[in-house]
Amino acid sequence: MSSVRVLVGTRKGAFILCADGGRKNWTVSGPFFAGWELYHLKASPLDPNRIYASQCSGWFGQLIQRSDDGGATWNPVDNKFAYNGTPGTHQWYDGSAHPWEFKRVWHLEPSLTDPDTVYAGVEDAALFRSTDGGRSWHELSGLRGEGSTANTHAQQWQPGAGGMGLHTILLDPTNARRMYIAISAAGVFRTEDEGATWKPINKGLVSEFMPDPKAEVGHCVHHVAMHRERPDVLFMQKHWDVMRSDDAGENWREVSGNLPTDFGFAIDVHAHEPETVYVVPIKSDSEHFPLEGKLRVYRSRTGGNEWQELGTGLPEKDCYVNVLRDAMAVDSLDECGVYFGTTGGQVYVSPDSGESWMAITRDLPAVLSVEVQTLA
Amino acid sequence: MGHGASVFTGQINKENWGDKTVDPNAAPTPISTIRVVLPFHLRTLARVEGDVELAVQNPVTVRQVLDTLESRYPMLRGTIREYETGERRAFLRFFVCEQDWSNEPQDKVLPEAVQSGREPLIILGAIAGG
Asked: What does the pLDDT look like over A139-173, one tens digit per residue?
C-alpha cells in the first residue's frame, strides 16, 4: 500500500511525519537537529531515501545534511557556499550599495534526473548546484550577471523584510535546460541553458510600493508553483496579488478574483488537476495572520479568479498563525492530499483535495517548510 | 583526560615532508595535548562527548588548535570561524584561563596551562537569542 512521508522544517529542528495512504494515523519522528533552524528539507524524486536538509543557526552558520535512508540517519556534507569571483554589491534597504554576503540556504531542489545533483537557493540571493551529492557546491553565477549576456539587474536587487532570499526553484520536467527561480524582492527569472544565462520574467507584475510599479525587477515574489504536466503555466503568490502566466513567465495576469485578501506566502497546485490551485490568504503585509482569526485555505478549480473557501476541520476563531512560503505541499496519491504547516507549530493534512482537514500534530516549533513524498 | 574525551594526533608538518634538506636526526616538532570545550550543538554535530583532546604542534596558538580541530572534525568547518574571513563567528567567544581571548590575534601563543592540558580552550556560544 502506498504511504506518505512529510518532511517538516521548523525553527527548532526537523520532523518526519509518516502515514499510510489513508493519511489518518500518523507517526511523528524527531526532532532531528534539535535546536537548529531547519529551513528546508526535500527528497530526490529518483531515490526516495535520499533527502537533503538545510540546517542553520545564527551562532554556527550553515550546514547541509544528507540522509540516504529516508531520514533515519543523517550525515553532514559540504557547507561552503562561496560566491564566484568578486561578489559585488546589491541594494540595501536604504538604497545604498551593499556587498553580497552569504547568510543561509533557503531552498533545496533535487534534480529530476540525478540523485546526486541538487540546487540550493541562498540568501543573499544566488543559485548554487552540487553534482556530487552535496560534497561540494558551485555558484551558477550567470544569475547575478557574471559572464551572462542577459542583464538580470542584480546590482539593483534589494532585500525584502525577511532578507534577499532565493526561495523558489522550479525544474521543468520536459526540458532539462529550463529552470525558474524566484527571489524576494527581485522577482522571477528563467534560464533556458541550465543556469548559464537568465532572463527576468516579471512583465505584468505591479508592485505599488516601488517607484516604478511595473519595473523589470524589484517585485517581492513570495512563491511560485507549477504543475509538472504544464511547465509553461505558473502560479504566483506575490506580496499582494495572486498571478498566473501561461507562457513560461513572459506575461503575467492577476487571478486574485474573489479572494477575501490576496496577500499570502504559500501557493501550490493539485497533483492531478493542473487548474486547481491552493493559497492561504493572510490579512495584510502588516498583519501576518488569517482574516478574523479563522484559518482558511482557498482553492480555485479554474486556475484562479474563482476561489472557494475551505475550512472544515480548521480553526474557526482565535487563530493568528502564518503559513510561510515553503510550508505547503501536495502528495500524488489518487485522492490528492494537501498539507501545510503554520508558525504556530501545527501541521494540517487534507486527504481529500481540501474538502476536510485534520491536524497531524499541533505543538511543533514554528514550521518553516513542508514537503511530501509519496512512497510506493 | 576528561570523561569521554576524544584524542586526535596532529598531522605531519607538510612544510618539511619530503624536504631533502631536513636533518633526519633533528628532534621532532614538539606536540602538546590540548583540551577544547565545545558548545553543546557543536559537540552534537561532531558526535563527541565531553572535552575534545587534540595533539597540536608547537607553537600552540588559537589558530593551530582550531585548524587541528577542524581537520579532525571537518563538519565543524564554518561553524566556529567564518569561511570568508577566517575570523571567529560573531556569536561565539573564546575563553582561556578565565580570560576572554575572543579579540586576541589567533596567532597568539596560548598559556602554558593550556599547552599542558591543565586548562582548556573554551569555545562558548552566546546565551542571547532564544
From this structure: 999 999 765 544 568 988 989 888 999 999 999 99
Residue with cell 563567528: B89
Bridge pairing between strands A267-269 and A328-330: unpaired
Range list of H helices, B49-95? 62-72
Give the type of residue at A316: E
Domain range for B111: 6-10+27-125
Q: Does B45 touch chain A (CB under 8 A)?
A: yes
Minimal CA–CA distance to A235: which of A213, A212, A259, A211? A259
Task: State whether residue B118 sits within 8 Å of chain A by CB.
Answer: no
* Helix, strand, or coil (residue A143): helix
d(C-alpha A35, C-alpha B43), whole Å: 13
Give the closest-approach CA distance of B30 to chain A in angstroms.
32
Here the CATH number for the domain that contains residue B112 is 3.10.20.30
Q: Is the dihedral of CA A153, A136, A231, A268 positive or negative?
A: negative
Q: Do A59 and B45 touch (CB under 8 A)?
A: no
**Number of domain units in chain B:** 1
Tell me how far apart the alpha carbons of residues A267 and A325 are, in angstroms, rounded to a whole number: 7
Question: Please, are residues A186 and A157 in contact by the beta-carbon 8 Å criterion?
Answer: yes
Per the domain annotation, does B17 fall within a domain? no
ipTM reported for the complex surpasses 0.95: no
Domains of chain A in start order, with CATH, are: 38-48+77-375 (2.130.10.10)
Closest CA to A328 of A267, A283, A277, A270: A267
pTM for this prediction: 0.92
Write out the three cell numbers for A282: 493572510
Q: Is residue B19 part of a domain?
A: no
CB contact B36 to A (< 8 Å): no
The alpha-carbon gap from B124 to the nearest alpha carbon of chain A, in Å, equals: 10
Tell me whether residues B125 and A102 touch, CB distance under 8 A.
no
Q: Would the CB atoms of A62 and B75 count as touching at under 8 Å?
A: no
| Residues within 8 A of A (CB atoms), B 3-32 only | none
B109 touches chain A (CB under 8 A): no
**B23 to chain A, closest Cα gap in Å:** 39
Grid cell for residue A237: 503568490
Per-residue pLDDT reduced to its tens digit, A195-217: 999 999 999 999 998 999 999 99
Contact across the interface for B77 and A79, Cβ inside 8 Å = yes
**Amino acid in the structure at residue A304:** G
| B92 close contact with A: CB closer than 8 A | yes
A57 touching chain B per CB within 8 A: yes
* Among A residues 82-101, those touching chain B with beta carbons less than 8 Å apart: 82
pLDDT digits (tens, 9 = 90+) for A245-283: 999 999 999 999 999 999 999 999 999 999 999 999 999
> How does pLDDT run across B23-50, given as a tens digit for each residue?
666 666 778 899 999 999 999 999 999 9
Strand-pair category, A358-361 with A347-350: antiparallel
Secondary structure letter of residue A82 according to DSSP: P
